[in-house]
Amino acid sequence: MRGRGRVYRPTSGHTGDKVAVWTLDFTIKDCRCGTCRDGRHRHATKLTVKRDAEDLLEQRRTDYLNGRYNAPPTPKTLRAYVEHHLAAKAKETDRYGQPITHQWLAAVKQHLTRAVEHFGSERLLGSITRADLLMWLSALARRFSGGAATSQLAVESVSARRGGRAHTDEPGDGFTAE
Ligand SMILES: [Zn+2]
After folding, report:
1. CA of 55: how far to CAs of 44, 60, 94, 113, 126, in Å?
2. How do residues 70-128 score in pLDDT, each as one tens digit?
3. Which of residues 18, 34, 65 is at a domain's end?
4. C-alpha 25 to ligand 1 mean position (Å)
């Protein structure tokens, strides 16, 4: 099988109907996970939303290509994402190679915390649209002045993720192992 893989809903052997949850189907050339045959993987999920399954497919393919066979799933809720994002951010350096400052981190954290308050901590990331984000940012801008840089950072961190998915949805995007 070529391409980026696919998600499908298997047919139940009992009822003959399609089951509610999606299964991932992807092939990794020269896979060394030790459990597949010829690199073909079919992973059952508990996901009922196709877009979520496609997200997971993309993530799992990337993990397998990089030899991470037991990577934890990416956070699904906004709160989990914020915690994940802040932990990663704390390890980063800025464009000059300097560690991210506590002050900067605190500003990012404050904005993300406000996002969680606004959208709800258990809100699924996939359910937040770009329009939601823009509305939230303009509301934020009205309440606080001078926070443009960190607001921009917040929208970038969420939209980067969404942009990545939008890109992988494009058909005919050839499979390459990075
Ligand atoms: Zn494998």
Report:
1. 14, 9, 28, 24, 9
2. 876 666 777 777 777 777 777 777 677 777 777 777 887 888 888 888 888 777 777 77
3. 65
4. 11
